[in-house]
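Most newcomers find our protein records easier to grasp once they have seen one. To make this concrete, we reproduce a full record directly below:

…
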Amino acid sequence: MLPKAQTSWTREEAAHLLNRAGFGGAPNSINDLHAMGREKAVDFLLQPTEAPDAFAEPDWCQPAKVAEEARRRFQLIRENRIAARDMTPEEADRKRREIQQSFQRDERRRGMEAQGWWLDRMLKSQAPLREKMTFFWHDHFATSAQKVREPILLLRQNQLFRAHALGNFKKLTHKITQDGAMMLYLDLQNSKKGKPNENFAREVMELFTLGQGNYTEEDIRQAARAFTGYSINRLSGEVTFNKKQWDETEKNFLGAKGNFDADGIVDIIFQQEQTSRYVPTKLWEFFAYEEPPTTAVDDLAKTFRDSKFEVSSVLREIFLSKEFYSEKCMHAQIKSPIHFFVQMLKQLEIPEIPSAYALYVQAQLGQILYAPPNVAGWDWGKAWINTNTLLTRYQISGHLCKAGSTQAPEKNMSKVKGFAMPKGGMNASSAGPNYDVLVPRDARDNVEKIVDSLIDRLFQRPLSGNVRESFIAYGNEKKGVIFTNQEVAELIHLMMSTPHYQLT
């Protein structure tokens, strides 16, 4: 077991835990977590009382609506085929494309709603670790709307990740073999007896459970035969198993022989020692830092194995460990774009965000929910930061800070990387930060106190003297007869436009 942290429990450590095990929060949220004490704070995060269905899904996700939409599409396609008999080939092709384009418009609209729904959960959920782990699984079992093209399947997968977010990794892996979005993304629905598709078999070992170098190409071929026989109805999302299309013959997989099916292959994978090391390593890198010590991986792997692959057991050990609160770990992780955005909203106490603007932000920052770049998910850490992405982050923080103040966004902020700001997006008339709450009027007589309160809100730690002094000097330069909301907005924007704010 990893060496435990000391019994002392600082507010800075509480903020660190909330930042890593969630998406951060306003000072009151940090105070509440700190008041619990370390172990109770970890228990609070690992055992949320908020129901998984606390946020109603979009209306089109209801089973009756899904069935109705499937019938509508089928009827349109059928009617068009009949009508095409009396059309010229050109007319028939034009009509077919019109129907297909109408389907695509519906998919784009629902995809945007699904993104907004999840972002809203990240922002408002009282179960922050469950949402952070749902985000982790979305990257681990990566699927993209660009190929799946069925928002209902992606949202169902998202709910699958949420249901198993803090649960058993083996059970989740079994479930993912029959997940509609994953089947479409890795072509499992095309894997038939005599013609197995190797995509899923390869990734289930390379990216999901074992990692490279812990299986052979022959293991992939053998596993692919076991994963045959599944199909999916794209209109309804129903997954079925056709035993006639399953290869029932003997397989030789990772040293075991038998007439294995999909579940049998997964069971054998979880008998391998490397399986107990792979995900704990990724969890450490996601929540702590890259390249964990071998001794740490050894300890976490034993915990994972002994608990029969319970994720919460590994997370508890990480969050209670001395190393998690070490200088190497704290304030040293580059925020992912989604984390950066959601944390800003929480710290500025902005309760709602226009969905079109949220999609705009994701596109500009380089991380769009339901759209990882490939099956390996996103690159993390330093990959998020370069000169262009830093500038974009500064501009986005400017949008948020200036919304609701008396100052409109600068003209050059309305377009970034050729992606136009959506009409009605964040602007001076949008519901932005309430600066009277962030910095009450009766607390604005002293610039140093204003700076220190904002440092606590945005950084949750003391900053070096030079950095703090630069903020104070800026505040004194801007200060007029009174410190206005516009000046508070500019000061916050300056603070967010620093390298320090990119770290958590």
About this structure: Residues 408-420 have pLDDT under 50 and may be disordered.
